[in-house]
Amino acid sequence: METQDGFTPRGGKLEIEEGADFSPKFDADGLIPAMTVDATTHEPLMLAYMNAESLRRTLELGEAVYWSRSRQEFWHKGATSGHIQKIVEIRTDCDQDALVLRVEQIGAGACHTGRNSCFYRKVVAVDGVAKLAMTGSGKAFDPAAVYGKS
């Protein structure tokens, strides 16, 4: 049985944790976090949010569609940049309130800063103080050229 949002109504704990029905739990704002990782390298690419409609669009298109909290609009990843994320697999956690999207990243990168991944820095301790250190090889594309802004 589908609800008006297109997903199976949430049942009891056993059904949610062990059953075959996809019953995503959206937060009070109607969103669910979606961690996106490269299906081949397993590198974390980005963290974004989906609402019921963007999740439905993702399932229909086979490409990642998110909900932009800052712009309050749908965000089909790659629509502007050409850096599309083709869905390989979508996983949900035990209580279905978080998603992991395994994707084939098409194009130079996933991050609006011009890098392959939004997770391009790691936290390190330097003399007892938390600092950030770069993890990757730098920018993969010029974001000003792709997005028309700096």
Helices and strands in order, then pairings?
Blueprint: H1 13-18, E1 32-38, E2 44-50, H2 52-61, E3 65-68, E4 73-76, E5 85-92, E6 99-105, E7 121-126, E8 129-134, H3 143-147
Parallel strand pairs: 1-6
Antiparallel strand pairs: 1-2, 3-4, 5-6, 7-8
Polypeptide structure, described:
This protein has 150 residues and is an alpha+beta fold. The protein has a domain at 13-113: Roll (Ubiquitin-like (UB roll)), CATH 3.10.20. The chain has three helices and eight strands. It has helices at 13-18, 52-61, 143-147, and strands at residues 32-38, 44-50, 65-68, 73-76, 85-92, 99-105, 121-126, 129-134. A four-stranded mixed sheet has the order 2-1-6-5, with helices on one face. A hairpin with a 4-residue loop joins β3 (65-68) and β4. The mean pLDDT is 93.
Can you summarize this structure?
By secondary structure, the chain is α+β, with helices and mostly antiparallel strands. It is built from three helices and eight strands; from the N terminus they run αββαββββββα.
